[in-house]
Amino acid sequence: MSTNFLQTAGLTARYGDAQALFGIDFHIATGETVAIIGANGAGKSTFLKAITGLVKVAPGALTIDGKPWGGRSPGDIVRQGIALVPEGRRLFPSLTVEENLKMGAYAGRPGPWSLARLYTLFPILEEKRKVPATSLSGGQQQMVAIGRALMSNPRLLLCDEISLGLAPIVIKEIYDALPAIAAEGMSVAVVEQDVMVAQRVSRRLYCFQEGRVSLEGASDGFSREQISQAYFGIQ
Ligand code: ATP
């Protein structure tokens, strides 16, 4: 039986006076791949920000390895083994592909991921390693963003809408890399607006609606109607 790497209980988050999350109960086991789906504004990105310390959460609402997590700085988060592939990728535009990848290793932990390992996962990045990262196609830039996160050797990889704006064949290529990543025992949480993609790549899913979990369970265990209801709140 696997153990939970990370868990939240009644997690709330706010932006000033506006509450964005209303009591999120979530867990992810070591080596598990989980999807978080939901419409625009449902609170998915805010939840990732809460995990990575970018928005404040109440003491005790978040536990890692069963212990309350009170770390605050981005460096703390990375050392604790959590890496985020941010929405929009946010690569360093003046750096080459390889320099971008190496940036991921600075604050990281020892572990199996190295440049050589990444180049096996995404061979195109080795071919393009000396060119500016922003000269790559959108899909290749996404590979750099994932690779940069992997270089910190995380225990939990958080991916925020990595398929946004990419062609279906490129989305498939990127998501096809996930099993090789999770095979190392890494937990992976993907925020995804495309429900079919989310169901295909994950074992379990959470649907968020207006800052709450509206559905949770095995990814292949829901009808289209159940998902629509949970996603949009309509019958
Ligand atoms: P999307 O798919 O559009 O990224 P999301 O599910 O990730 O949506 P969030 O971005 O987490 O949703 O937004 C949740 C709620 O918090 C929304 O009502 C949004 O308007 C609000 N919100 C998000 N960021 C901020 C911010 N920086 N300041 C104030 N309110 C915010």
From TrEMBL:
Alphabetized PROSITE patterns for the sequence: ABC_TRANSPORTER_1, ABC_TRANSPORTER_2
Molecular function GO terms recorded: ATP binding; ATP hydrolysis activity; branched-chain amino acid transmembrane transporter activity
SUPFAM superfamilies (alphabetical): P-loop containing nucleoside triphosphate hydrolases
Pfam family, one: ABC_tran
Residues covered by the ABC transporter domain: 6-235
InterPro entries: AAA+_ATPase, ABC_transporter-like_ATP-bd, ABC_transporter-like_CS, BCAA_Transport_ATP-bd_LivF, P-loop_NTPase
Superkingdom: Bacteria
GO biological process, one term: L-amino acid transport
Keywords: Amino-acid transport, ATP-binding, Cell membrane, Membrane, Nucleotide-binding, Transport
Keyword Cell membrane: yes
Similarity annotation: Belongs to the ABC transporter superfamily.
Name of protein: ABC transporter ATP-binding protein
